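Why should sequence recovery work at all? Because a backbone constrains its sequence more than one might expect. Tight turns favour small or flexible residues, buried strands favour hydrophobic ones, and helices have their own preferences. The token representation captures these environments compactly. In the example below, the structure is given first.
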């Protein structure tokens, strides 16, 4: 049967696109990346009414999201999917991805529309909690902080012992922190910690709590919080760990424990030798200890690690000059040009 053969060939073309997409390992901008986009476009143009068209449009959006230069192209693909393929079997996933991208692109109106549609159309979806969080983020971004707080509180109360609940408490505290309401931030963060027996998902909660304590000059409490956060018995290593070590070093210095502050900075740099903030902090502590050459070297290393702060090179050059290392000072000054 001719129609059957045609349908099988069309199905095969979409299966080939699926195999290429799911096996894709190239980087954006590569020949493989461009060829996959071209194959998708050709298949969509040749067989525009196939049942799997929505899937390919979604894959195109995800490919565009991989490319930092093409997020708006991803946004367009999501909108096409949402507007023209309302029967997509996983429309809730599409709506959440579209809402999260809208927040990233700072288009809160789109984020509100997509997250609200998900919540209204798929109230039982496992993604409803994440959609509520995105909705709160969109309101906060647009300046509607009261509405944002309403959604964050709703999530925090509904998910008290989950990583999602931790995110909601953190968002509430971040709003308070940004408004310099440090005591309110402390209350919200302490409430989160006291309401759960788990530390999972709470790394950023502890980090912000320590910063709030520090702003309120509650340095011993900041110290204890940071020591817990950097203790692998309580928290596995994460992207928060090096930042917490920097904060701990600075708190120790403010407590008058200069030797321990410097020791923490040095040990942290040995543990994270390519982390720009860690290296910058090492330079600051060495400078405060009067070790000019070591401070200069650390600032240069921070720049090489990607700190992207001209002030570090300027400080390094001045330290070299003070240590009578004129050649190194001139070389460092030259890097500023």
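From this structural description, the recovered sequence reads:
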């Amino acid at each position: 049967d001719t129609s059957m053969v045609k349908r099988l060939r069309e199905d095969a073309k979409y299966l080939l696109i699926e195999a290429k997409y799911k096996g894709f390992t190239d980087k954006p901008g590569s020949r493989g990346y461009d060829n996959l986009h071209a194959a998708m476009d050709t298949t969509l143009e040749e067989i525009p009414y196939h049942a799997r068209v929505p899937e390919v449009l979604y894959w195109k959006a995800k490919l565009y999201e991989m490319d930092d230069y093409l997020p708006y192209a991803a946004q367009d693909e999501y909108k096409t999917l949402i507007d023209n393929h309302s029967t997509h079997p996983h429309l809730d996933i599409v709506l959440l991805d579209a809402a999260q991208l809208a927040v990233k692109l700072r288009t809160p109106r789109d984020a509100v529309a997509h997250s609200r549609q998900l919540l209204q159309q798929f109230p039982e979806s496992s993604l409803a909690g994440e959609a509520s969080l995105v909705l709160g983020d969109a309101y906060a971004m647009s300046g509607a902080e009261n509405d944002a707080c309403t959604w964050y509180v709703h999530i925090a109360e509904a998910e008290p012992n989950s990583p999602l609940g931790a995110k909601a408490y953190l968002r509430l505290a971040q709003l308070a922190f940004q408004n310099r309401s440090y005591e309110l931030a402390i209350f919200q963060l302490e409430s989160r910690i006291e309401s759960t027996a788990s530390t999972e998902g709470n790394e950023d909660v502890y980090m912000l709590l320590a910063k709030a304590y520090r702003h309120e000059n509650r340095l011993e409490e900041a110290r204890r919080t940071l020591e817990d956060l950097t203790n692998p018995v309580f928290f596995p290593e994460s992207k928060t760990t090096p930042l917490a070590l920097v904060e701990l070093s600075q708190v120790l210095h403010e407590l008058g424990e200069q030797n321990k502050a410097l020791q923490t900075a040095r040990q942290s740099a040995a543990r994270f030798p390519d982390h720009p903030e860690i290296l910058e902090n090492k330079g600051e502590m060495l400078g405060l200890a009067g070790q000019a050459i070591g401070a200069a070297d650390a600032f240069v290393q921070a720049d090489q690690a990607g700190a992207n702060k001209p002030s570090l090179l300027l400080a390094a050059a001045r330290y070299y000059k003070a240590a009578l290392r004129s050649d190194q000072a001139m070389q460092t000054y030259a890097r500023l040009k």
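A few observations help interpret the result. The chain has 18 helices and no strands.
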